Amino acid sequence: MKVETASEPVTSRRRKPVDWFAIVNTTFLIAAAVLCVLPLVHIIALSFSSSAAASAGYVKFWPVEFTLSSYEYTASRDEFWRSLWVSVQRVAIGTPLTLLLITLVSYPLSKESHVFRLRLVYAWIFFLTLLFNGGLIPTYITVKELGLLDSIWALVLPNAVPVFSVVLLLNFFREVPKELEEAAFMDGASYWTTLWKIYVPISKPALATLALFSMVEHWNQWFDGLIFMGSPSNYPLQSYLQTIVIQQNLANLTREELLSLAEISDRTLKSSQIFLGSLPIILAYPFLQKYFVKGIVLGSVKG
Amino acid sequence: MHLMLLPGLIFIIIFAYIPMSGLTIAFQKFIPAKGLFGDQTWIGLDNFRYVFELPSFTQVVWNTLYISSLKLILGLVVPIVFAILLNELRNQLVKRSIQTTIYLPYFLSWVVLGGILIDILSPSRGILNEFIMMLGFEPVFFLGDNKWFPVTLVLSDVWKTFGYGTIIYLAALTGIDPGQYEAATIDGANRWQKAWHITIPGMRMVIVLLAVLSLGQLLNAGFDQVFNLYSPQVYQSGDIVDTFVYRIGLLDAQYGVATAVGFFKSVVSFILISVSYFCAYRFAKYRIF
Amino acid sequence: MKGLTPRRRLIKLSVIVLACTLVLSACSSNNSGTGSTDGNGNSNANSGTPADTANGPMTKYDPPIEISMVRNLSDVVENNVLSVLEGETFEDNRWSRIYEEQLGIKINYDWVVKGNPDSDAYKQKMNVTLASGEIPDFTPVDAIQLKQLVDSELIQDMTQYYDQYASPLLKDILEQEGTAPFDAATYDGKLMAIPETGSNMESGMYLWVRTDWLDNLGLEPPKTMADVRAISKAFTENDPDDNGQDDTYGLVATKDLWGGFGGLEGFMAGFNAYPDIWIEDESGELVYGSIQPEVRDALLALQEMTQNGELDKEFGIKDGAKVSEDIASGKIGMEYGEQWNSIWPLQLNVNNDSDAQWQAFPIVSDLADNTSIKVPLKFRTTKFFAVRNGVENPEAIIKLFNMHVEKNWGETAEFDKYYAPPEAESVWQLSPVQPAPPKKNVEAFRAIAAAREANDFSTLEGEAKTIQEKIDSYESGSEEGFALWGWERIYGPDGSMGIADQYDKNGQYLLDKFVGAPTPTLVERQSTLEKLQNEVFVKIILGDPIETFDKFVEDWNNLGGEQITQEVNEWYEQTK
User: Fold this and answer.
1) Residues 6+ away with beta carbon under 8 Å from C2
2) Inter-chain residue contact C325 with A56, CB threshold 8 Å
3) Pairing assessment for the beta strands C105-114 and C65-73 based on DSSP bridges
């Protein structure tokens, strides 16, 4: 409801007969959008084409010799579904955990130094980790010593506090009008209450953004899966896909490996798996967009 | 409030600070099989010296700086422009569809895009060059010409990420009070004035923030992209610090050297970020964190 | 808010627990992390049997022992084996069962990585494993990792175990490629790992030519380098596919320059140039092939061909997979590659155009007698099994080797069960150790050729039989058989293996003379020099002045090449 009240005045204020700017602007944006969608169309077209046509590069934006065989094959692969499930779990656990942690961290850090004295020290402690990291070997050893290898936690915990998101969120928190917080304190609310009752609801667009970032990050990460998982059956989807799409070094292939290159990793199959593999995360965005509607902050403040 | 920080702090200490002890590798002739805490040979700054004495390293650093500073600027400007233009769209359905569409390329990996780009950008058969020739110009070998290769990297990267980049600006725009636009309209402000005086200031915080943070990425020119697009023909302009580290570290198994380069990158980022952090504070009275 | 507090507390609690665990275990690894992993002895605790009582090459351990290993899961095994075999998994299958039942060896995998052993993921995983100090009992490593393990004194001397336990059959198989595989694993006279001997011969080069284009233009197969140049020119300029367009190329190259498909080693060999390998000069010293003047001539020829449009001017940015598209769409007339090229990518061409026909020919030169050209070979033994200190039955790995060769090529071989049953032809790859006779493919060809001669295929057995069935299927003209065109091109009457047979009989092979562990300077400079070389070569082929080559030779020497040459020769002295 708030959405409508907020956007109505915006639509009602233009009543010019022909808005040339709007036409040019829309055309330009649509052209840009088309440029962005073409590669995906190409991949989808490949996935529905025969492998002979695909291997020769005949497929552009429309399937050549239409077939569903690559999808049938993909659907029959246990590995594909198993790793898809791992990825879903990873996002389902990782994103809420990350949101919770960064909310908790960002709130104190968004305070001025005279309110929260050690603020700057903490801020730099967090911030430095964005710049310095120990590298693969010590991280692996840490994860291993914690006994997390081969579990979903190895994928979720090491990056549970993305400092980039913390910095963003604390800046969003700062934009929240001080009066709201002061009013809450007057009513005897604690810091905890203020955070949950005022800051979190008002920062929904920011949190939705960070939720999206976190989901995308968890979905796209493939390297940690390969390193921290001791068995391919625990790979998340992108790790699994990586082992398929990666460019093979043709110089060192044995003939048996070649056979599989010829039979299995042909381009139509790869394309169908790439497409299916990115579909869930692509769909997540339109879903989250409802939190991005203009004026929601104001609406809730006034309400 | 200390309590609120605690969980996050513990995570940071375990997964960032403890592994940081591994930076000692930079000062060792590190052999993995001897173990992280094993009997490694300490060689002081030899790894650093070795890298800086390699004839190709200066070139590599320059390439990196050139590519990444262009990416940094365009990567900042293009999403802002698109956010403003999207903000001007009235039809919510069109707006949302365009937003979703321009966000798509972000999800295609460079391995996949590499093959597609070779086709599109081919000087003899590519669509883009057919267009260029239609306009009466000579075809351009985008991926094979040392003049064009960095430009190609920058533009394709901007193309891939700008849609994703606009999201954060759009989130910032939700904070703007629509009443401000109404008031401005009543005052007779035109579209540009409103964009300049309301929309951009509304995003100011995010702009400053991302500008400062991306400065820290100045020595990261994008490993995945370069690795999948470069070739011996364009080593001269396209070899970057990260591909260099890949060859030294993984192919030659010189972990000490690879870690030393990583450490060097961190120090440079640290300096850049600190300087810009204090500049932002001094000149804009704004602490980014 | 009330709902959230306990959750937060829970998380906090678990985090603290984690932190404590970490601190504790970090301490313990500090204590034991000085390189000795004996204390970890996780898997062989129950191997109470002393080595002496289990003294035959294939004697069963009683009670059985457990060993730990690590390995990769290749696409082939995942897609062509495990997905078609009911009731068998990567951990529990016909190979693991026979090792357990007949040898009393139970194999546990510490980890399994999807991909090939030369993939980045596998290397990284191996490196972190080595660094974390807990290496498995038996570790498959490459030459660089083996050197590191030896330097770290983590592994055992295997000399006496190999002598004592290797079966005659195994010794015969592993030693078929001469002493090089063992030299590569020998440090200070001790055999520090068991090499899984690879077939050098498989890296031999052939000239694959589209014979339907030859016929179309009325040309003869190439006998000399001049022929190759003439055919290449004709394929480029005379519209061999009759489509009225100037869209064909005589030859291909890839941005990597070398390799099993589209590699230029074969072309260069026609100039007596042997890039990327170490060869012996007249004085008996080793010299690096890439910096010899013959390479200059070959580059110059390639440059001319590129300027004529016989090579794709865009090859410098295309890898093999990308170039295979040009093959598939019928733009290419010749390519240098290994014997399997007909299966991939040439089959792709035939799938799209059933009139297309390719045939392998021996590489040629301008020498009077073509049988005296040398065919360069890379050293293909890249996997060595190292045994951790403290493992009580180090010979177990040799017993696994023995069993593997016995069940595939020995007296009790069950080819259709353990090597290649029709439904899953790569079943042998389920075994963690895969030693195989290096010449098995050419032997199979010889058997088939003999049977063809005698017109009696009933005598064929094992791999040769399976292959002949493929050829029969192809010749039947069925749709299924059409997909086996590539096999017929390898093992058929004018197959590439026939040429391998000739190469072998004429003694034409020229093996890379340096097979030892990378020398210190090689480790430091290899990738730098390799990058320099490929950059210069690609640019010369694309038109840089040939004098760049002379500059390259100078740079190569100055940037460490000279030092490397010296170190390589020191090694060579030792092994003589």
Assistant:
1) none
2) yes
3) parallel
For B143, phi then psi, to 5°, come to -95, -5
pLDDT in tens, C416-432: 999 989 888 889 999 99
Question: Count H helices, E strands: chain A?
Answer: 18, 0
pLDDT at C98: 96
Cα C22 to chain center, whole Å? 41
DSSP characters over A264-282? TS-HHHHHHHHHHHHHHHH
pLDDT at A18 over 80: no
Contact in structure between C145 and B255 (CB atoms under 8 Å): no
For an interface test with A, the pick among B4, B30, B281 (most A C-beta atoms closer than 10 Å) comes out as: B4
Long-range contact set of residues A236-242: C-beta below 8 Å, sequence gap at least 24: A236/A83, A236/A86, A236/A87, A236/A90, A236/A155, A237/A80, A237/A83, A237/A84, A237/A86, A237/A87, A237/A277, A238/A87, A238/A277, A239/A83, A239/C114, A240/A79, A240/A80, A240/A83, A240/C114, A241/A273, A241/A274, A241/A277, A242/B109, A242/C121
Upper half-sphere CA count for residue C212 (Cβ side, 13 Å) = 13
Phi/psi of residue C245, nearest 5 degrees: -120, 150
CATH of A73-302, picked from 2.60.40.10, 3.40.50.970, 3.40.630.30, 1.10.3720.10, is: 1.10.3720.10
Q: Rounded to whole angstroms, how far apart are CA atoms C188 and C168?
A: 25
Touching B (3+ Cβ pairs <8 A), the chains are A, C
pLDDT digits (tens, 9 = 90+) for A138-181: 999 999 999 999 999 999 999 999 999 999 999 889 888 888 88
pLDDT in tens, A187-219: 988 999 999 988 998 888 889 999 999 999 999
Amino acid at the residue C430? L
Q: Which residue has the tokens 């304190």?
A: A185
Q: How far is C502 from chain B (nearest CA, A)?
A: 36
C449 and C498 assigned to the same domain: yes
The number of C-alpha atoms within 13 Å of B83 and in the hemisphere containing its C-beta is: 29
Nearest CB partner across the interface for B15, out of A42, A118, A158 = A158
Q: Are C429 and C423 in contact (CB under 8 A)?
A: no
What distance in Å separates the CA atoms of residue C173 and residue C182, rounded to the nearest whole number? 13
Residues facing residue A244 across a β-bridge: none
Instruction: Work out the number of other CB atoms within 10 angstroms of the CB of residue B271.
Output: 13
Contact C15 B122 (CB under 8 A): no
The Cα–Cα gap between B89 and A93 comes to: 36
Residues C274 and C318 reside in one and the same domain: yes
The partner residue sitting opposite C316, judged by closest CB among B33, B50, B233, is: B233
Whole-model pTM? 0.89
Tell me the chain C residues in contact with residue A104 when contact means C-beta distances shorter than 8 Å.
8
Which chains sit next to A, with 3 or more Cβ pairs under 8 A?
B, C
Which residues of chain B are modeled with pLDDT < 70? none
| Exposed/middle/buried for residue A303 (C-beta within 10 Å: 0-12, 13-18, 19+) | exposed
Closest CB from C133, C135, C145 relative to B38: C133
With contacts defined as CB-CB under 8 Å, which chain A residues touch C5? 192
Q: Which of A58, A52, A66 is nearest to C479 (CA)?
A: A52
Residue A225 CA to residue A151 CA, distance in Å, equals 10
Residue in chain B nearest C539 by alpha carbon: B233
One CATH from 1.10.10.60, 3.40.50.920, 1.10.3720.10, 3.30.70.2470 for B44-284? 1.10.3720.10
